[in-house]
Amino acid sequence: MSATVKLKHALAKELRKAALAFPETVEDFPWGHNAFKVAGKKAFLFMGEDEKGGWSASMKLPFRNDEALAVKGAQRTEYGLGRAGWITFRFTAKAKPPMPKLIDYLDESWRAVAPKKLSAAFAPPAVPKRRKAT
């Protein structure tokens, strides 16, 4: 295991917390990124931050990858992973990403790689509703 990579952006931390709520999820730190894996084997989320305070998240979306590409900042993941349904979301430090949608996509990504019995036994997490600033 590589050294821990601490996420600083509040919304990146929120997505990290949601990922760790899935059963048998472990966090690893390859290539200077945070990787979230089911039972320490198959990754379902990669996260990283840039020097300007922006952050990114890559997820495996075998069913809704075309839908996910409509999110501002989304693109097919590089290194040939896009062909396998991986989508990368990139956000600037001040961006307001659609967190409920990202957390919903996270559920699809986890289920895409989780063992079938584990996936079937787990109820999807509640998607938090964002309150509007007043």
Automatic annotation (TrEMBL):
Top-level taxon of the source organism: Bacteria
Gene3D superfamilies, per database record: 3.90.1150.30
InterPro entries referenced in this protein's UniProt entry, alphabetically: YjbR-like_sf, YjbR/MT2646/Rv2570-like
Pfam family, one: YjbR
Name of the molecule in the record: DifB protein
Protein source organism: Candidatus Viadribacter manganicus
Lineage, opening ranks: Bacteria, Pseudomonadati, Pseudomonadota, Alphaproteobacteria, Hyphomonadales
